[in-house]
Design brief:
The protein is built from 18 helices and eleven strands. By secondary structure, the chain is α/β, with parallel strands linked by helices. The strands form two sheets. A six-stranded mixed β-sheet has the order 4-3-5-6-11-10, sandwiched between helices. A five-stranded parallel β-sheet has the order 2-1-7-8-9. The protein is globular, with a radius of gyration of 21 Å. The structure holds iron/sulfur cluster. Iron/sulfur cluster binds near residues 314, 315, 325, 330 and 341.
C-alpha cells in the first residue's frame, strides 16, 4: 500500500538499526507517549531488534486507558437514563467502570450506540429531536478538533438536544508529570506525531530545556519509530536535548492552525485526572463557559460519584512505564481481552492488549523463542 509499504522496508530498517548500533555506547531509556506507536513497536518486535542498551518504555499514550474511572461511571449513569441516546467510539464500551461497563448498560436497556465520528452523533440528534443525544468525547489533542467541531456545529445549527461528556487530555503536561516523578527513568521522548500534526511543536522546547531531554516528533510506521529512536539516541550520545521533527511529512512546526483555532474557541484548559495516575495540573480540556449548556456533566448533573479501582489491576504502573504488562500477575490469566480487568487490556491502543495480541508473554529471551513476530 502506498505510503505504508515504504515505511516498512526491511532493508532500510536494517540500515537504521545498524546506525543505532554504531552510535550507542551506553544504556538509554526512551519513552513513547502514544498507543499507536506502542502497538507498532510490539507488533514488529522493534524493542527486541534494538541493541540491549536502548530500552523503550511505554508511556500513558492510550486515550481510552487514561480516561478516569469517575468519567466512565458518569458515562454509565447518563447512558442509563431513558431519555438518552449515548454515542461513543466502540473501544469505550468494554472499559470497566466501578461495577459494570457500557455494554452492560446496553444489555440492561440503555440506548448506547457505537459511532465512528462525533458528527454521526450530531446526525442522530437531528433525527431524534425528542431524545437527548450525548457523545462521549475522549482522547488526546488528535481527537479533540472533530469533537470541538461537533459542539460548534450543534450550536450553529441550533441542535439543542446534543451534548458532550468531555474528558480530553494533553500530552505536554503528562511529560512534565513523568519527568517530575521520583521514579522517573526516562532520558528521551518520542513525541506522538499525530498530536503534533494538530498542535505543532512549540509546546516542547521548554520541556526539553527544563528537563534536559531530547524530544523527537515521531511517526507510526516501523521506519518512523526507528528514525525517531536513531535521532534521540544520537542526541543523547552527544549530550544534546533539543526538539527534532522526524515526521515532517505530517508535522509542521505550527501544527494545524484551523484545528487549533477551533480548539481555542470550544475548549478551555483544566486540571484533569488520568486513570491510574491521578490529577495532572492543566492536563485536560473541558468545554469553555460559552458552551457550558452543551456539557453533559452540567446538563445531567452527574455529581456525587465515588469510585474505586480494582486492586488486582496495575494499569497505573503500566501507564507510567514502571511495569511491563507481562509483569502484572493477572496478565493472561484472570485478565485477557475477553475478561479485561483494566482499560489497558481493552483498548486497541492499550499496552496490555498489545503484549497479549503479539504474544509477549514472558521475559525478552523467552519471547524471542515464542513470539511469532519477534
Ligand atoms: S494485565 Fe490486566 S490487570 Fe494487569 S495491568 Fe494490564 S489491564 Fe490491569
Amino acid at each position: 500500500m502506498k505510503y505504508l509499504a515504504e515505511f516498512q522496508n526491511p532493508d532500510l530498517a536494517k540500515g537504521l538499526l545498524d546506525d543505532i548500533r554504531a552510535t550507542v555506547t551506553r544504556p538509554w531509556a526512551l519513552m513513547e507517549v502514544c498507543g499507536g506507536q506502542t502497538h507498532t513497536i510490539i507488533r514488529h518486535g522493534i524493542d527486541q531488534l534494538l541493541p540491549d542498551e536502548v530500552e523503550l518504555i511505554h508511556g500513558p499514550g492510550c486515550p481510552v486507558c487514561v480516561t478516569p474511572l469517575e468519567v466512565i461511571d458518569k458515562a454509565m449513569e447518563i447512558a442509563s437514563r431513558p431519555e438518552v441516546i449515548f454515542c461513543s467510539f466502540g473501544d469505550m464500551l468494554r472499559v470497566p467502570g466501578t461495577d459494570r461497563d457500557l455494554f452492560r448498560v446496553r444489555g440492561e436497556g440503555g440506548d448506547v450506540r457505537v459511532v465512528y465520528s462525533p458528527l454521526d452523533a450530531l446526525d442522530i440528534a437531528r433525527e431524534n429531536p425528542h431524545r437527548e443525544v450525548v457523545f462521549f468525547g475522549i482522547g488526546f489533542e488528535t481527537t479533540a478538533p472533530p469533537n470541538a467541531m461537533a459542539v460548534h456545529q450543534a450550536r450553529k445549527q441550533d441542535i439543542r438536544n446534543f451534548s458532550m461528556l468531555v474528558s480530553h487530555v494533553r500530552v505536554p503536561p503528562a511529560i512534565e508529570a513523568i519527568m517530575t516523578s521520583a521514579e522517573c527513568r526516562v532520558q528521551g521522548f518520542l513525541a506522538a506525531g499525530h498530536v503534533c500534526s494538530v498542535m505543532g511543536m512549540e509546546e516542547y522546547p521548554g520541556l526539553a530545556e527544563k528537563f534536559r531531554v531530547p524530544i523527537v516528533v515521531t511517526g507510526f510506521e516501523p521506519l518512523d519509530i526507528l528514525e525517531g529512536v536513531r535521532r534521540t539516541v544520537r542526541q543523547l550520545e552527544r549530550g544534546e536535548h533539543t526538539v527534532d521533527n522526524a515526521y515532517p511529512r505530517a508535522v509542521r512546526p505550527e501544527g494545524n492552525p484551523a484545528a487549533r483555532a477551533m480548539l481555542e474557541d470550544v475548549f478551555e484548559v483544566t486540571d484533569r485526572a488520568w486513570r491510574g495516575i491521578g490529577v495532572i495540573p492543566q492536563s485536560g480540556w473541558r468545554l469553555a463557559d460559552k458552551y457550558r449548556d452543551q456539557d453533559a456533566e452540567h446538563r445531567f448533573d452527574v455529581t456525587g460519584i465515588t469510585t474505586c479501582e480494582p486492586s488486582a489491576c496495575r494499569s497505573g504502573e503500566v501507564l507510567q512505564g514502571l511495569l511491563k504488562p507481562h509483569e502484572c500477575e493477572a496478565f493472561g490469566t484472570t485478565c485477557t481481552p475477553r475478561t479485561p480487568l483494566g482499560a489497558t487490556m481493552v483498548s486497541s491502543e492499550g499496552a496490555c492488549a498489545a503484549y497479549y495480541l503479539y504474544r509477549r508473554l514472558g521475559t525478552p529471551a523467552a519471547n524471542r523463542e515464542a513470539s511469532p513476530v519477534g
